[in-house]
What we know:
This protein is 43% helix and 22% strand. It is α/β, with parallel strands linked by helices. Strands 1, 2, 3, 4, 5, 6 and 7 form a seven-stranded mixed β-sheet that branches. The relative contact order is 0.17.
Amino acid sequence: xxxxxxxxxLQHWCYCPRQCGLIHLEQVFAENVFTLRGQAVHSRVDxxxxxxxxxxLRVARALPIWSEQLNLIGKADVVEYLPDGTPYPVEYxxxxxxxxxxxxxxxxLQLAAQAMCLEEMTGLPVNxxxxxxxxxxxxxxxxxxxxxxxxxxxxxxxxxxxxxxGKLPAPTPFAExxxxxxxxxxxxxQIIRQMDADxxxxxxxxxxxx
Length: 210
């Protein structure tokens, strides 16, 4: 039986497959100012098992969630239960709703995975959730679309393949993301990119087929 994949791995993979591999394959992690700020944001809601009522809604915090179909496991920062019992996941993130579109997609991917887990656990459709951004203290409502659901499945499969092969992926092509990554010193993306460029130059110069 395959070990379950952490839901957080989907966000890591979306941001940078190599970051995901370092954390979930090599079990490497390091702190920087961004990870510490993220921990501070989550500490405000991370009270596992706490259930309270707010504005008529039952609210669960740090709720353990899983999906046998997707082979995912993790924890939802906040789950609000609507009057009919439908769960409404809320993920807490650093920054604001004005994040770059591609980075925002990584947050949405993680939220969609939580929604799909909650659907399997409760048998109820979860068609919407929200991301709460700490900087603006405002929510961004996210539709759990078919496109997002397909992305969850595709990303989960890609991570599973990486874990089975045991090989680290290449760094993200978006070099600016490396600046905010706490694993940059361990990853050494500049060196890897230079080595790849050198190999490409060598092949172009000495390709026997040319």
